[in-house]
Amino acid sequence: MREDLTGAMARIVGEANVSDRLVDRICYSRDCGPDPAGIPAVVARPSTTEEVAAVLRWADEHRHALYTRGRATTFLGSGVKEGVILLDTTRMNRIERIDTAAGYVDVQAGAIWHGIDADLRRVGWELGVPGGGGLFSCTIGGTVAVNAIPHGATEYGMTGDHVLALEVVLANGTVIRTGSWANPASEPIERNANGPDFAGLFIGSYGILGVITRVVYRIRRAPESELFRFYAFDDYRDLVAAAGGIQGRGAATFLVGLFGGPKPAGEEGDAFFHVIVRDRSAVAEGRMHEAEAIAESHGGRPRPAEGTRHYWQEHMYSWLRNTGPSAYYSDRPFFCPEVAGFVSTPGLADAVALFRTMRAEREAEFEQYGIRVKGVDAYFARNGAYLWIDTLYDERR
Ligand SMILES: Cc1cc2nc3c(=O)[nH]c(=O)nc-3n(C[C@H](O)[C@H](O)[C@H](O)COP(=O)(O)OP(=O)(O)OC[C@H]3O[C@@H](n4cnc5c(N)ncnc54)[C@H](O)[C@@H]3O)c2cc1C
Fold first, then answer.
1. What's the whole-model pTM score?
2. Given 55, 195, 221, 289, which residue has the most CB atoms within 10 angstroms?
3. Is 93 touching ligand 1 by the criterion CB < 6 Å?
4. Is the domain of 241 the same as that of 370?
């Protein structure tokens, strides 16, 4: 059976783009998280939509399970089951078109997020959202498939909000296009134009409804100005109230709250937030003044914001706490399991309280197993917050 499967895949994607070597298959079994997964039977690396469709048709006819993989940067435990065909999209990394007049980029699903953005920046534009923290490695297809929560979410919203159209191969090999792109005579202008929005079915579906092969994504002119502030609060509930006020006024591009884990280097306080404003120069200062006034009216103390700038411009997580990377990562190897979810902004205060209580009650267990809390952090979105709790513990245990 193995020969048949490998041979069939090789006929579709070429001998050089298939492997059933155990060492390769093991490398494709896990994501960035701690959970073990199954080992695929074969890895196939198509480069075109037609090849993806042929692989899916073969899998459908032979009733063989298949898993689609971008760059496996999730922390959730990969969905790879024992013996699946593993479809690796990373050879599908071509930018088909940058159209600044119509405001979109059309790209194959396996292209790396940051690579697309780098090409856009050469012409003064950028993707509709800056991407999540995995932007240097993740694919655009995988990021749309999980509807990642991006940096800049306070103003720009979710990854899926900027998808204009998708090309998707369904489980039986049928290729569809969504939004206005479904009409062959139309350009991919809007998701909800000229018909129902089928793109929404695939955004956040984790690949279970089809394989995304092309993404048409909204682009914007890169802003002229980026401003940074950092605030300390003596009570996390005041921070949550201030964040709600700033959200209500649409003043910030991005707010990141720190509610636990190591304190920012040299800082006193119970909770902290980073404020980032991006806009045209004439507008950015006014928005930042508004954010400052709201933060200070809730007891926020302005602190040096070099760490905020470093975090945003260098994309270094550790600088959220004004420290270099070694402050987190000195004692490798470690697991970094993550718990995350959306809450309303007022509900965030309850969620933080619950975590703090649980953490205090389990002090001894955290000590016994060497578990460290890396962060209890929140990305503020437009009308809520994405809270994530990261822990670190020794992988060998
Ligand atoms: C350092 C770091 C920081 C991160 N920060 C964030 C963050 O700020 N916000 C956030 O939300 N996430 C974050 N993540 C998680 C991760 O970056 C995202 O989930 C990522 O965008 C997934 O892309 P990927 O290419 O790695 O997809 P994969 O992990 O390969 O796949 C993810 C899921 O999508 C499916 N899939 C992949 N490609 C396709 C496709 N073409 N068609 C259909 N289904 C597909 C897979 O089957 C799987 O279920 C971070 C990760 C790292 C390593």
1. 0.94
2. 55
3. no
4. yes
